[in-house]
Design goal:
By secondary structure, the protein is an alpha/beta fold. Helix content is 33%, strand content 22%. Strand 4 and strand 5 form a beta hairpin. Helix 3 packs across helix 4 and helix 4 packs parallel to helix 5.
Length: 283
């Protein structure tokens, strides 16, 4: 199977005041298949969001290449729907108008009523059917992030990029929005890359979890295959005999980045983990 997204030997560095180079990400390699949901996890400051922003085309890479659906990424584009930690809504626009901004960009030849119906559909799918005419100041943090999700999905992009989308929400709202995300994603299984620091979130949502080493010069450390079949029920995932073993493996990797690692050193990716799939559920 050909990779839908291929990140190969990507490096990102910045010039320092002394004229040297501060390497944030070094020789990062990752392949994602079409329809796959992959999470990128690691310590704060390791370069997770830097990798995501390079895939989004918002931050130019220093070296290497990023290819999406056979085309090298050289800047931002509507083929990638991005959801940030803060949804960055236009405060003077309603929820509907905020979603329409993107829809109008990708569907300039559609009739206005068609574009409106698309925006309304996705706002309804995220649970905001009764709040489409409210402005961001009238919405809770969770509702604003629902608008952000609706805006990204309404673009009908080739790929979804999610940068800690629930990181600023309380625990209950976070769980609710995870369900909204996975329900939306399950309808057409857009290829997705999500940055998160939450081990449980990564295990529940992902097909694979890519773990980054700590910086400087962070890179891919290991990849964990998540065995739970889809569709998933949170209770079944938590009760699966593999769940806590995988959770400990992720935590163990993160802890290993805190101890016994020389600054600037790198780790080679370990063989991809395989595990027994959850019985009794469809793919």
């Amino acid at each position: 199977m050909n990779s839908y997204l291929e990140i190969w030997n990507v490096t990102k560095s910045y010039k320092t005041p002394s004229g040297g180079d501060a390497v944030i990400v070094s020789d990062f390699n990752l392949k994602i298949n079409e329809g796959e949901f992959v999470s990128l996890i690691g310590h704060s400051g390791c370069g997770k969001s830097t990798v995501l922003s390079m895939v989004a085309g918002l931050n130019p890479k220093t070296a290497g290449g990023i290819i999406l659906a056979g085309r090298e990424i050289d800047g931002p584009g509507p083929d990638r729907g991005v959801v940030f930690q803060a949804p960055c809504l236009f405060p003077w626009m309603t929820a509907l108008e905020n979603v329409l901004v993107g829809v109008e960009e990708v569907r300039p030849n559609d009739r206005s009523i068609q574009r409106r119906l698309i925006a309304e559909r996705y706002l309804t799918l995220v649970g905001l059917g009764d709040a489409i005419h409210k402005k961001p100041a009238e919405l809770s943090a969770g509702m604003r992030q629902r608008v952000g999700l609706a805006r990204a999905f309404a673009l009908e992009p080739k790929m979804l990029l999610l940068d800690e989308p629930f990181g600023m929400l309380d625990s209950l709202t976070r769980l609710e929005l995870q369900e909204v995300l996975i329900e939306l994603w399950s309808q057409n299984r857009k290829t997705a890359l999500m940055v998160t620091h939450d081990v449980d979130e990564a295990l529940y949502l992902s097909d694979r979890i890519a773990m980054m080493t700590s910086g400087p010069a962070a890179t891919l450390g290991s990849i964990l295959t998540v065995p739970f079949a889809r569709p998933r029920e949170r209770k079944e995932v938590l009760e699966h005999p593999e769940y806590y073993r995988l959770r400990e493996k992720l935590i163990g990797f993160l802890e290993s980045q805190d101890h016994g690692r020389e600054p600037g050193s790198s780790r080679k990716a370990e063989p991809e983990e395989t595990a027994v799939a959850m019985p009794g559920r469809g793919p």
